[in-house]
Each structure stands twice: as C-alpha cells, then as structure tokens.
Amino acid sequence: MNEHTCTLHTDVHTRGDTLSRSPADVAVISVAEVMLGSAAASAAAQRGIVREWWAQLVAIRVERRRIARRRPDYFEHAAMAREMYRL
Q1: For residue 28, what are the β-bridge partners?
Q2: φ, ψ for residue 10, nearest 5 deg
Q3: From what superkingdom does this record's organism come (predicted)?
Q4: Model confidence over 26-44: pLDDT tens digits?
Q5: Would you tell me which of 12, 35, 42, 65 could form a disulfide with 8, CB atoms 3.0–4.6 Å apart?
Q6: Cα–Cα distance between 12 and 21 in angstroms, integer?
Q7: pLDDT band for position 14 (cuts 50, 70, 90)
C-alpha cells in the first residue's frame, strides 16, 4: 500500500499519452486523510448509537417512574387486608 493514492479525472484516463499530465489533473489523497475521514464517520455513527441508547434508557426510567406512581403501596394493601380480615 502506498502512502498516497492518485485519483485521475476521466479525461486523463482516456488520453493516450500519460506523460503530459498537469498538476490540476491529479488529486493526491493521503492514506491518513482517508483513514481519518472514515474514523470520523465511524465516531459520528457511534455517537448516534450512544445518543439513541441514552434516550431509550431515559424513556425506560420515565416509564418505570410513571408505573411506580400508579402502583398501589404494598403496606397500604396489607393494612386494608388486615382491616377487612378483622371485619
């Protein structure tokens, strides 16, 4: 693998003489730049996954709190059961 990868325009590929290339025809891309770009894209995707996971976790916690508020208290049930048993 080379340190740099050369990308040529389409009209340069069709030309017969390869010695008459101008610097404007060749775009040199560093392998490090390509790897950095893919790493940045990967990091952005991972951030999105983490944000979705965190939002889902927050939603689950909110739902648990809502359910816990609606759930009757155990001790309240036990007290009512004792009172009904005494009657």
Answers
A1: 6
A2: -65, -40
A3: Bacteria
A4: 566 677 777 778 888 888 8
A5: 12
A6: 7
A7: low
